[in-house]
Model the fold of this input.
Amino acid sequence: MTDIAPDTTGWSCPAPLRDHPVVVMGHGGGGALSAELTRHLFLPAYGGETLDALMDSAAVELGSSRLAFSTDSYVVRPLFFPGGGIGDLAVNGTVNDLAMSGAVPRYLSCAFILEEGTELSTVGRVARALGAAARAADVTVVTGDTKVVDSGHGDGVYVTTAGIGLIPRGVDIRPQRALPGDVVIVSGPIGQHGIAILSVREGLTFGTEVRSDTAPLSGLVQAMLAVTPDIHALRDPTRGGLAAAVNEIATASEVGVVLDEGAVPVPDAVATACALLGLDPMYVANEGRLVAFVPRSHAEAVLEAMRAHPAGGGAAVIGECVVDHPAVVVARTVLGGTRIVDLPLGEQLPRIC
Amino acid sequence: MTDIAPDTTGWSCPAPLRDHPVVVMGHGGGGALSAELTRHLFLPAYGGETLDALMDSAAVELGSSRLAFSTDSYVVRPLFFPGGGIGDLAVNGTVNDLAMSGAVPRYLSCAFILEEGTELSTVGRVARALGAAARAADVTVVTGDTKVVDSGHGDGVYVTTAGIGLIPRGVDIRPQRALPGDVVIVSGPIGQHGIAILSVREGLTFGTEVRSDTAPLSGLVQAMLAVTPDIHALRDPTRGGLAAAVNEIATASEVGVVLDEGAVPVPDAVATACALLGLDPMYVANEGRLVAFVPRSHAEAVLEAMRAHPAGGGAAVIGECVVDHPAVVVARTVLGGTRIVDLPLGEQLPRIC
Done:
């Protein structure tokens, strides 16, 4: 595949931190600006070996157990949208970050930042959704906190969850472990969460209603691990979408990735919405999908196990890892050309999770 | 001590939830309104045996380890104040919640909610303080998240940390374990954090500068446990102050508590500030103090160990647990009278941590 390898000599890092003396929306977008803030500001301040690995969840030893530990803040607007709400996201997002280490999620913490004047009925609706999502994901909320900020600050309800889970012995899933020859599998159709948020926020309709795909993925991951513990890398393509997730693994593993654009499952309504709005579905957020890098020898059996699981019914092989163009992701387009799929700078849609 | 037992028959619960259809500042104050929101709204939505225990940190089993797990959001304004800043608080607050279970804190998560337009130099200052505090408390930040909210929302920087630690075998420290006869010890002078925040926020001075007491307490707790694993209950008197902390343990354990008001260490500057402002030091927040309920047989040795530790140099016995007036806290005043020290409704100073 040497013919499609781009020449990356002389590429420069986009938008160094010094060009942005203030926080911009893109710093929270999960793309290049987020990565830069983390690398140039947070890691020098309090980084260490584990944080520096920049995984969806940290793998740590405690006592005789190997744990996954993860956190996310949720600042989505609006609080409720077709298919879910901030309560579901706050559970599923953190559960999925744990699952991306192969961990079985067990316990969540939940911290609310409430804006003075928010209807208690709204807080109650968020809390009930959070409880239902926790039960569905088989995790228990064991500790929490509530702060109230003055009216005009905050934004109704912000939720931050952290989660811990147990990593089974023999499982070592990390973005650094992808290898040339690995098959890239996505667990289902992409782009639904981002488009669902956008449609309700902007009052747009695209024929059929697009609903968020928010769902826990821990059961799906355990079903995959039942086929083989030798899954190399997993990532849930949230902010930054599939493009960011695949790029992060390609960079961490120093492998090239070739995606087959025509094989990436995009629902018709998402495709229509993206065409109308000038968005690329590869960059739109998902909240119930994962992308897996699996050794070729296990790919077929893993795909079969995914399709047999409710959270992976739409699983599809979308590409492979190659020796050429290390750390660069390219897509073979439907028309037979190739294009580079790079890390987004910020994000296309702000505050989607 | 029957003569000082109040008659609590016919007391009514202040301000039931239905009288507050919207979030008010007091819901985040760590007093009765906070407790009510938790009991009537959060626990029915996603409570369980562990969360319902309402400890500073949850004790959970994972693999073969017994862990403490805790979270807090920090929304303090201003971000920096005499003696510390939001970065120190975000580490020490969560470390201390873990320590109140007797755990040795090990790992932290750290999630930022940044307001668009915030100076990156401010974010950097917070991050560096957070890193320094983590090193001082001997914990490692292993996972994190950053979200950005539109200018006009948020408030510069909100930080949510969660922490995990290992609870040593044989240690069982819970607010339910206080017993009549237990000695109540506070680890040092109270009220400094709340008054430091207030002074900088309102531009007040009270003779000498009052500095926040923010500090990690895990080393102090381990020094106490080296004397005896049989510490009954610990609490760090943050929001709601010493009054809320002692009330929570009295309620959970169904014991009466008699405090000796004259024995409670209050720095002169704090006393002056409280007198000027009409505040009661017993209700002012601390961020580097703990209150301990210790069996009388161990009290003297524990006190000695506390005084020998840098974080407990000002430790003092301030009261005892009694059979009379279960769940009620009374103070013997300096003038020889008694007064009820009840749970505050909201808090005297908003957004102090």
In short: Residues 185 and 317 of chain B are 4 Å apart (CA to CA). Chain B has nine helices and 14 strands. Residues 1-18 of chain B have pLDDT under 50 and may be disordered. Chain B touches chain A through 83 residues (CB under 8 Å).
